[in-house]
Input
Amino acid sequence: MKTDEILKIVNDVFIDVLDDEDLVLTPETTAQDVEDWDSLTHIQLIVAVEKRFKIKFTSQEIQGFENVGHFCEEVHRKIAD
Amino acid sequence: MEQHPPGFNQLIKAAKKLEPDGKQLRVALLGDSAIQLLAKAIHASGRLSGLSVNIYEADYDQIDLQVLSHDSALYTFRPDFIIIYHSVSKLKNRFYSSPLGIKTEFHEHHSSKIENLVRSVASKCSSKIIYLNLPTVQDAIFGNYATKVETSLRFHIRAINQHLNSFASGHGQFFICDVESLAAYVGLSHSFDQQLYITSDMEFSLDFQALVASNVIDIINAVHGKINKCLILDLDNTLWGGVIGDDGIDGIEIGNFGLGKAFVDFQLWIRQLKDRGIILCICSKNTEAIAFEPFRNHPDMVLKEDDIAVFVANWNNKADNIQYIQKVLNIGFDSMVFIDDNPFERNLVRNAIPDICVPELPEDPSEYVDFLSQLNLFEVASFSTNDQNRNQQYREEAQRKSIEIQFTNQDDYLKSLEMVAVIEPFNSFNIPRVAQLTQRSNQFNFRTKRYTESDIKSMAESERFIPLIVSLSDKFGDYGIVSVVILEKNTSHLFIDTWIMSCRVLKRGLEDLVLNQVINHAEFHGAAKIYGEYLATPKNILVRDFFPEKGFKQEGELWKCETSTYQIKQHFISLKEVNI
Output
């Protein structure tokens, strides 16, 4: 799976969890750019992405995501394993 | 089959789609770890069951401070329910850090701490308390030997839960959300999320928080009287394998072989529900005589004819038949569960009667019991021995209905019943049933005040209230306690705080006997006036005009009756004993 496909799926998950049909994520998007993406919904987003890709992030990873692009790279790396 | 309850994210999404127009409720949530998502889940879960939950989230780790101090934000919030959650992860760390010398007393300390919290709440307000009990942990310090060692954590967790069970059974204001069982059901690896705990101080996985929230709401609903009272069952391929009309009594699957075992297990489960007070009814597309045959003649049938309150087998539409059952039982559709293996029938009933609960059913009968169990359809907030006879009472009712048609004159019919009423004050035997009636009665209920056992106990101790606890029997059987009146004494008048009557005894004249007695009490206490109040709910329209019909005069929002002008009402019930 390519990273832009992953980005699309991650975007869908975000739309679903945050209930915002108009949400468009780019690799540069951070939590500051998205209304409703706070520390609580962050937990919901992580769990939803984990479920969607059947992966599990480590505690360090969860705390260290810089932006959506970085997040998608981690997903990519995990599903490649 | 769909997951129940929905996972956390699905739950939040489903709740967002609904309008926030349900019954208002105030819930305070106190925890010693992060509780924001649990609060979110409780709110969403409430909305899914028609409640509009206003949540107060106490600041982090403030349980003791909030509960013990009189003027805390907790009490200012005036919660209907207080949920207390001690995380087992924190408990574990405290246990590990306890010096060996006092480790053996750990469970006693924790248990008495909770008891103190409960007593402290009870001394300040009548909020109900829901405590999340502790899931067992697998710390492997002693392996299986932990069960034998008083200095193992698992030993203490079990002791605490055990202790809380006994404490809760004697305390009507205190309820336990049985997280221990929930965790056992989904497994510890699904209930805990160690990463979430480390990164966000929430030990439970998101989906488990949703499950806990759904159970908390189940408890809240049960306390408010929203419970299922009746189970309506299909027959072919639901209670036994095969079709009785085609396969015959020797051909259906029920018994200790093969698939028959699954149906035996299912029937045993159903009988257990009946024994705890759930009314059983049959609704089947069959010829009646054929449908009865297994109940009468099949040696392996667990359920017998006597277990069924209303038995409907014909070729009519099932929704019509369920409407008939509802008329006979006189309980709300929203307290009925209908189980049928046929998706067509399920949908038909669901569409025709939106209030009734119609769960899906797995294709494999061996999954019936587990599937239905996890839906937690039969949560209750009280239990009394009277419950166990309920099915019998509804059967007697069916017999009464059949003789009623023989009399053309209603008075002759009532006389023929040879009714006897007994009126008592509160006592330790009737308090559980009285509390239950206040929680469950919706129709003949003027003010719909819900009381727990502890509420009733404190009323019993107070001099301010006059209770009339009314039992009724007739030649067909004993109804047990069917009416409760609680009069509040004021200087010159009595106020009817509560008057409820079971709908099973409507139109027997019991309300007239009770009203006569209320007047007697008023005269005995030197009160010249009695005031009643009608607070409308969607369900109590039955008594909207009761007071004017009985000669009460309107005075503002209240209804007034003067004892001097009261006309004694005629009835056909003899009064056996009255202990004022």
Remarks:
- Residues 271 and 303 of chain B are 7 Å apart (CA to CA).
- The mean pLDDT of chain B is 91.
- The radius of gyration of chain B is 26 Å.
